[in-house]
Write a structure and sequence with these properties.
By secondary structure, the protein is α+β, with helices and mostly antiparallel strands. Among the domains are: about 15-185, no CATH class; about 190-340, no CATH class. The chain contains 16 helices and 13 strands. The protein has helices at about 45-50, 55-60, 65, 135-150, 190-195, 200-215, 225-245, 295-315, 320-350, 360-370, 375-385, 395-410, 415-425, 435-445, 450-460, 470-475, and strands spanning about 15, 30, 40-45, 80, 85, 90, 100-105, 110-115, 130-135, 155-170, 170-180, 250, 270. The strands form four sheets. Strands 1, 3, 7, 8, 9, 10 and 11 form a seven-stranded antiparallel sheet that branches. A hairpin with a 5-residue loop joins strand 7 (about 100-105) and strand 8 (about 110-115). Helix 4 (about 135-150) packs parallel to helix 15 and helix 10 packs antiparallel against helix 12 (about 395-410). The chain is globular. The model has no long low-confidence stretch (mean pLDDT about 95). Bound molecules: adenosine monophosphate (AMP) and magnesium ion (MG).
Length: about 500
């Protein structure tokens, strides 16, 4: 990374660089956000602002900055070019409604993208208006902050402002701009863009940049680009295992929505599963269930194969050998994922040690949960809260419970240690679909933000026992057939 010490932080705390602008020109377009009529702050993330070294008290009043009407000191706005496989089909995309303002260098020297989403048209907008509606931007704010609190790598949300303009999505809706904070916005699709243009120079520059920014330890590897592929694979495997362990369904795992940093990115039709069923799909346009809960690991691997294809020219001069190296890396995804998944599930059951039959123990419980259509979050949490008492009065459950108790006896840890582990890995509260909708409706229709603020407060401490508030822990009762999330974001 180039030196940033010359930049003097402003009174607002902005300490922006834009290393992305120094990458080959085919990867970005310089462009300013399109001003909006009447910027108004809806929600501002004080804690996040502070962690970025920003002056929260000053910036919380500066809706104009977060609407794109004024630029923060030192910004170099640009739209990023990328491609992507959407539902399996390759397309050229790019930031059609987002502008990267720059990279905030924090007081501890970390670098984070500051991006406006919904900031107006760009050369990549195609037929889109470049805008966003308030509901979906608040939804991204709520779910991304919930994911962060759950301990899952994710982009975060700094602010949402309304624009005083309308957007049309089948109906007229209030327009909004979200400020997204990310380790970076480099996607699998960014590599696909460079590769599809046959631009090896850009591809290599992008790979070097990604290594430097996210995998600096791999720069000195014998084969750094293969190491990059393996590094991304490992982070994706861990991330998807974390999703599976909390019942998170991303909903639109296209390759343009896969970040090389390993963060969860692009909260569109995502939602948390209530009743356990691997076939759960919420997205209204995902008719074939391509991105169903149970498919997420395979889809992640499929997406990584697209990254591997894009990287082929860098992996080996001989194409056949490049393909072999790539295949081996991609094939190891399954084992790596399963290792993380097993570890995550063991923790959810309070297991500290490993036994070969643990997988069967876990799968027996999940099969029962699916047959009985019980709530994923509450079932796991109640196992830790109920201790040795029965959670369900059901003979199949009782048989499983006895096996689990016997298994717990075969590890040295005390009952207290078991419960502590379970409580640290089984959230009490997740963003329940009906609670999210309730908060969005109050904010979008009536301008009442108190409902969302309460929800955000509860979601910020998801593992705390004091959170046992039925209002936030009761499932909606809506099945995925009845509850749909929309891509019309
Ligand atoms: P997403 O489904 O949010 O990952 O977006 C897929 C692509 O569509 C990206 O290139 C977006 O920039 C673009 N896009 C989504 N909504 C709009 C919009 N309202 N105007 C312009 N481009 C959009
Ligand atoms: Mg996207």
């Amino acid at each position: 990374m180039p030196a940033t010490a010359l930049i003097t932080p402003s009174a607002s705390g902005w300490n922006l660089d834009q290393s992305y602008a120094r990458l080959p020109a085919m990867l970005h377009e310089s462009l300013e956000p399109t001003p909006v009529r009447e910027p108004r702050m809806v929600v501002f993330n004080h804690a996040l602002a502070q962690s970025l070294g920003l002056n929260a008290a000053v910036l919380a009043d500066q809706a104009a900055i977060f609407a794109g009407n004024e630029l923060p000191d030192g910004s170099t706005p640009l739209a990023q070019a990328y491609a992507g496989h959407q539902y399996g089909h390759f397309t050229g995309l790019g930031d059609g409604r987002a502008i990267l303002l720059g990279e905030q260098i924090t007081p501890t020297g970390e670098r984070f993208d500051v991006q406006l989403k919904g900031s107006g048209q760009t050369p990549f907008s195609r037929r889109g208006d470049g805008r966003a509606a308030l509901g979906p931007m608040l939804r991204e704010y709520i779910i991304s902050e919930a994911m962060h609190a759950l301990g899952i790598p994710t982009t975060r949300s700094l602010a949402v402002v309304t624009t005083g303009e309308k957007v049309f999505r089948q109906q007229s809706l209030p327009g909004a701009v979200l400020t997204r904070i990310a380790a970076s916005h480099i996607r699998v699709g960014t590599f696909e863009w460079a590769a599809a243009h046959g631009d090896k120079e850009a591809l290599q520059a992008l790979a070097d940049y990604t290594l430097q920014r996210h995998y600096p330890a791999l720069l000195t590897a014998e084969a750094p680009y293969l190491a990059l592929l393996e590094g991304v694979m490992k982070r994706q495997a861990r991330l998807i295992a974390q999703w599976q362990c909390v019942g998170f369904i991303h909903g639109v795992m296209n390759t343009d929505n896969v970040a090389l940093s390993g963060e969860t990115i692009d909260y569109g039709p995502c939602a948390f599963m209530d009743a356990f069923d691997p076939a759960t799909v919420f997205s209204s346009i995902d008719r074939n269930g391509r991105y169903a809960y149970g498919n997420q690991p395979q889809i992640a691997q499929w997406n990584l194969a697209r990254l591997a294809e894009a990287l082929l020219p860098l992996l080996h001069a001989d194409e056949k050998q490049a393909v072999e190296l790539a295949n081996a890396a991609i094939e190891s995804f399954k084992t790596t994922f399963e290792g993380h998944w097993l570890a995550g599930m063991r923790a959810k059951l309070g297991l500290y040690t490993e036994e070969v039959d643990d997988r069967t123990l876990i799968e027996t419980l999940l099969t029962w949960m699916r047959e009985e259509k019980v709530d994923f979050t509450n079932t796991f949490r109640s196992l830790s809260d109920a201790g040795k008492t029965m959670v369900y009065d059901n003979s199949a459950f009782a048989a499983w419970h006895a096996q689990w108790q016997a298994r717990l006896q075969r590890q040295p840890q005390s009952a207290e240690e078991v419960i502590a582990r379970q409580r640290a890995h089984n959230p009490v509260v997740i963003p329940r679909n009906h609670k999210v909708e309730e908060a969005l409706a109050a904010a979008s229709e009536g301008g009442d933000l108190s409902v969302m603020e309460r929800l955000l407060g509860v979601l910020s401490k998801p593992y705390e026992t004091s959170q046992n508030q039925p209002e936030f822990t009761t499932p909606s009762g809506l099945t995925s057939a009845a509850y749909q999330t929309f891509c019309g974001t």
